[in-house]
Please model this.
Amino acid sequence: MAQVPGEVDNMEGLPASNNNNPAARWESPDRGWEREQPTAPSLFECSRIKALADEREAVQKKTFTKWVNSHLARVGCHIGDLYADLRDGFVLTRLLEVLSGEQLPRPTRGRMRIHSLENVDKALQFLKEQRVHLENVGSHDIVDGNHRLTLGLVWTIILRFQIQVIKIETEDNRETRSAKDALLLWCQMKTAGYPEVNIQNFTTSWRDGLAFNALIHRHRPDLVDFSKLTKSNTNYNLQRAFRTAEQHLGLARLLDPEDVNMEAPDEKSIITYVVSFYHYFSKMKALAVEGKRIGKVLDQVLEVEKIIERYEELATELLAWIRRTVGLISNQKFANSLSGVQQQLQAFMAYCTLEKPAKFQEKGNLEVLLFSIQSKLRACNRRLYVPREGCGIWDIDKAWGLLEKAEHEREAALRAELTRQEKLGLLAQRFDHKVAMRESWLNENQRLVSQDNFGYELPAVEAAMKKHEAIEADIAAYEERVQGVAELAQALATEGYYDARRVAAQRDSVLRQWALLTGLVGARRTRLEQNLALQKVFQEMVYMVDWMEEMQAQLLSQECGQHLVEAEDLLQKHGLLEGDIAAQSERVEALNAAALRFSQLQGYQPCDPQVICNRVNHVHGCLAELQEQAARRRAELEASRSLWALFQELEEALVVALQVRVVETEQLFAEVTEMAALRRQWLRDALAVYRMFGEVHACELWIGEKEQWLLGMRVPDSLDDVEVVQHRFESLDQEMNSLMGRVLDVNHTVQELVEGGHPSSDEVLSCQDHLNSRWNRIVELVEQRKEQASAVLLVENHVLEVAEVRAQVREKRRAVESTPRAELGPGLALDEWLPHLELGWHKLLGLWEARREALVQAHVYQLFLRDLRQALAVLRNQELALSGLELPGTVESVEEALKQHRDFLTTMELNQQKMHVAVQAVEGLLRQGNIYGEQAQEAVAQLLEKSQENQLRAHQWMQKLHDQLELQHFLRDCHELDGWILEKMLMARDGTREDGHKLHKRWLRHQAFMAELAQNKEWLEKIEREGQQLMQEKPELAASVRKKLGEIRQCWAELESTTQAKARQLFEASKADQLVQSFAELDKKLLHMESQLQDVDPGGDLATVNSQLKKLQSMESQVEEWYREVGELQAQTAALPLEPASKELVGERQNAVGERLVPLPEPLQERRRLLLASKELHQVAHDLDDELAWVQERLPLAMQMERGSGLQAVQQYIKKNQGLRREIQAHGPGLEEDEQSTLQLLKKHLQLEQGVENYEDSIAQLSRQCRALLELGHPDSEQISRRQSQVDRLYVALKELGEERRVGLEQQYWLYQLSRQVDELEHWIAEKEVVAGSPELGQDFEHVTVLQEKFSEFASETGTAGRERLAAVNQMVDELIECGHTAAATMAEWKDGLNEAWAELLELMGTRAQLLAASRELHKFFSDARELQGQIEEKRRRLPHLTTPPEPRPSASSMQRTLRAFEHDLQLLVSQVRQLQEGAAQLRTVYAGEHAEAIASREQEVMQGWKELLAACEDARLHVSSTADALRFHSQARDLLSWMDGISGQIGAADKPRDVSSVEVLMNYHQGLKTELEARVPELTACQELGRSLLLNKSAMADEIQAQLDKLGARKEEVSDKWDRHWEWLQQMLEVHQFAQEAVVADAWLTAQEPLLQSRELGSSVDEVEQLIRRHEAFRKAAAAWEERFSSLRRLTTIEKLKAEQSKQPPTPLLGRKFFGDPTELAAKAAPLLRPGGYERGLEPLARRASDTLSAEVRTRAGPGGRHEPHRSFCPAPRKATLADIVEQLQEREAGPGLPAGTSLPQPRELPPGRLPNGLEPPNGFLQHEGFLLRKREVDANRKSSNRSWVSLYCVLSKGELGFYKDAKGPASGGTHGGEPLLSLHKAISEVASDYKKKKHVFKLQTQDGSEFLLQAKDEEEMNGWLEAVAASVAEHTEIARWGQTLPTTSSTDEGNPKRETGDRRASGRRK
Model:
């Protein structure tokens, strides 16, 4: 049976069965019956159970069938048999579609079983998709018609689609029940309250039928009468319920009464039927609710429609009203009068207050109505109502906005019109007032300018002109006022003033008068200008007459001159005088013409014409007289000049002759001088030429001598003679080198003479060419002879060798011939002997190779040990340097130590290369499999470990130095701050007393000091931050840093406390001084007030009295303020702890002020009394005048007798009369009334109005009685009605009169109040004007500061209070004017006057504030200037102490710190000076005159002092800098001298060397010292440059600096020379030790060979003879191999060359010279040059052994017969045989180190005594080429060269190496260009530089190390020669290297020789 997922627990489930019988509990009884044996009771029970099951199944089938049919009826289907009709699956599919409402897959058409199974599977699959769990139900069960499973499937469908949807929540909503429980609960809820109905299940609770009827009655009580039903009538109840449900409810009748009325009704059937009731009643309830909702919606719709109609009606009415109102109020036509505009404004205000609010309420009601409509529609979920067009709220708002806009415009226009009318009235009054003033002024000025009292003198006319200009200026200034009248009239006309015609007439009148006045002024100016011009002409005439009188006095002189020059001078002066007279005559004519023009004027004439003519005639006569006197004077002077000219001609005749002789003498002297100079130059040139000729002659003599010798020389044939010639050529080379220098000097001299333009240049050049040609010829001749000698030498050597070979061949031949043939056998013995010989030879070669390999490895290992010892020595030196270091204690010393340590690190880095070399050597040993590799690796490991330890210690020391530097920097900053604090502490503790007027300055200065202290507190904070950071980063320094910080904080705290204490003292002293000044100022003010009170003037009118009262009130307020101020000053005096002297002075001032202040109130009160009395008197007179004027104005109106001609006229007259009466009533009591009386009248009137209001009830009662009588038809109804109307009219008129009376009284009261406030405010303003107009501007900066502070307080208080009071008055006036007060014009005048007075007060206060600010700026400038000047002077006084400190030798750091602190203080003055300059510039633009001069003078004084201070500071800074540099120089010099002393002590301090390795160690150590010296060279150079710069700057310690410089230079040269000497000595020692080592080895070889050669054994058999021959052949080969070593031993050592130079003898090698004495003598002579050792002692035995050995060999070669003739050099000397005698045949065959360096041709080498086994000869490598080339270095060791310029150098190619020298002398001296090493051509590449286009004939040379050179020859031939030479040299170098590899093994000594030579060459390069 299937189960639904939502099935509840108490629902009966069907247990699962096995697969064979899947039936559920329906068959369980049968199963039980089958299992048990039937008994009688059990059988009955089983049958009973089976019957019940069948009955239940039948009921379920019937019920389920009806249920299925009830649902299938919707689709027109019907089933008869539930089991059969569901088998095909079609009905089942349709049922599920109806229940689910979904479309299932279309059933398969067909009758076959498979079709049915497929359809049923589709239905079951659909149920599974609907999450219906089917258990043990398959499609085959349904198709087979299984009853129980079919019923189970239908029940499952009922549960899923009918029951499962039922869910009813309980009242507490805490649980939701399942479907069955929910259905049961629903039934219980619906049947609750019904009697005898208790539903507890779906079985027995339904048997009586009451439950079914209760459900129907609950929902449809009209269908069932439940009260008539009884529980006992079960079938009736069931039948009625089922029938009613079927007939009236439309529910299918699923059950019959008998199906329910049974013992155990089927639960599922009842549930199925009850579910149909549940669904029907639920649907019925939903339909009822929907009906109610629809009715409610309809009601709401109808209601909304009514509201909408109401809304549209109201909206239309409101919009019509708005349009009408807008049309009315948009009319902008107003009455052209003030009263008309006021009435229109009142009507508009009535509209705004009465009519508009009601309509506004209507508008709000409309909005509420629309909102309610929308709310109801929204509640009904209907579309919102959209009003028709024109009735929307937005339309109403828009119309209302237009209405409000029109209202606003109307109100604004009305108020603007009202304001305009008021302004027009005021403007007309102002116009009338101004017109009257202008007319009076114009009349007065017209009268003034009509007068012509100019005077008759020029000063008077000028004064009149100035007065007239003043009048014109006044008139010009007044033009604006006249234009103002015209503008006022234009404004009135423009604004449409009603009386515009009168205004225009008055304006035209004023303008006419103005035009008249300007015309009068212009005419008067013209007359004045004519008078002025005439008077100026008269004045010029007077000046001219006076000048002519002066000229006449000069012309009357009788002086004519004492000689010709004077006469001509006088005549020249007279000519000038005549020129002046001529010029002045023209001026006189012009003056006369100008004067005569004035006499011919028409109209006004400034003077009488006769007077003008008289003056013109007088001037003309004076001029004629002057001209006549001038002519007479000229005649006299010309006669005098003629006389003196005669005398002059006679004198000149004698003078001319003398002058001619003098000129001739001077010309002769000049010629002599020029000739002397030329002769001196000629003599010098001749001397140079003669010297040159002498030098040329000497050179030519030498050349001729040598040329003659060379031409006559014949090359000898013998070998000895050729060697002699070779030695002569060597000496000739030296002579030629020296002569070549002389030839070059001659060429240089010739070049100078030619360039100097010598007259004998051609002869000199020809002589030069002759000398050069002879020199070239002798050089070529020498080369030819050398080549001939070399060729002969080669031939002789070859002949000698050929002879030796012949002798050997002959010897061998004789030996062979002498041997018997029988002994040889048939050749078998020789055949046997040869293989053994070959085998032995191969064994010997193997042993030889093994021995050679072992020796090579040992040699390499020894080289490694040598490098290792050098590295260890370097490490020991580093350890020694790092041990014993101490941290310095100053910044300078730390920096110096850092510098030294950096140099030390640099040296370590340089020496680190040695470690790398050792490591690389070990790697090479290990890679080559050296037997000593492991030992070397261990040694290198120890070496690297020590190196790392040293580097670690060095870096640790560097870090310590950096930490110490930071600490010392911090301590130095602390020291600087400490010094600054101590300096400021002295300033703060300065207790000098000063005068009282300087206390304030001291206070200001102390404030600046405190500001500086606050500013520099950042310095302290910075140091504290640095200290904290230092302590965090370096905890080991925390103790010292914390201690220093504590000390600085303590000092700073003391400084701050001292500063605060001094500030308090200065403040108290300054306060006392201010008190004294304040009392003094009060005393002055009181004295001034007493003088004012002495003058009592009661005043002549009311305005004067009011003004004096205002002044008096201000004086009283001042006295009150002074009382208050005196009280405050007394309180301050009492509070201050003053000193006795100050207290006494303050007391005196206080008493003086008190004596003046106390009597002041009495005269003030007396004066007030007098002024008040005078004011009352004048006030009464003024009021009476006003009233009389008013009466006179209104009297004609009151006396008018016209009655009017009509009703309208009479009414107008009545209104006028009523207005006049009201005015008289209001004005009459005004004679006695005032504010208080008006207030009393207002109170009485209010009481009267209250009484009138009380009558309103009586009148209303009368009105009611009247209406009652009228209603009753009283016979006097008409009279009663008329009387009632009359009463009503009278009452209304009475109320109106009361209202008018009240308004008038209120206006009068407010007018009095306004008048009182205006008077008080004007009086208050007048008082403040007295204070604001005070002329006191202060005496100094302190005084003006006090005044400014007080005035600032006064201005603040006055501004605040004044604005408040003025705003209140203005507001009151505006409100009264807006209310339509009758005195609006008067109030407006009061308001304008009050505002003008307030504006004047503000302007006065602003002016006062500006004056005080300007005065303060001026006094502040002077005060700041004085203070700044004082500070500058103080700084200047301090400056000398900085440059000359008390210590005898201060440290540079202390001086620099002091100067930095001083400059830091000086920086604070920079801003003050800049501010002073800016302030002075601003003040100069404001002030002029004396103030400007004073400002400029004070600024100039300050700037002059400032410039002097800056100059002095700069001088001090330079002095300190120079001193610091000098001290630094001394410190560096001391350090360098100490260092050089140490280096000097280290040079030569090591132990004496004992062998070659020890010498090499010493040389490496010595080279380390050289590296250290070179590393210190920049430091030494910098120190010397510093000293020289100090000398150039003329330092004060110039003598000491010069001494130190000299000492440094001398010590440097001394150390350098000592190093060079020691280096030469080491080289000599190395050479000697190497020679000794080689000599010992040679001695050992000779000793080993002596027994063989001395043996006389010749063999007793062939084998023995052959063995001896083989031994002898081996000896000869060994001798040939040893020949190279003996050749090197024969070369001269350096020590031998030095000895030869000292003894002036030709050098001879140790093994090559002939001894003509005992060899011990040579050893004794060479002993001083050699270190102690056994070398000398070993020479003689070595020579003797070599001689014996080689003699034996010669004897052996000669044979028994002695036919061989040995060479002469082998002949024994007469004396004792030496080594030289024996080895003379082994002369040098190649140029060795002993040859002179200047030899140009290679020497021939000796042929080797034997050849290699292959029979080939090794290359000689003697190619040489030399000449000048241009060189450019492109690449240096694979990097672009730093210097790539072309240099002309002398290039020498020799022995496979290329050297570059400055000139041809370079190869002789051995000094290469720039100390460059010789360039090895091994694997070098040379080619034409085709890619280089800038120069021609350029070829490129690339070396093995990556360097590249460009070389330029003079032509292509020379370039090709160089390319061929370089290529040949490279090829020879390669061949030599190849041959060197094939040579037999050599000892370590042989390998060391090339190194020694290379080391010698490198050392030579360094020395150069």
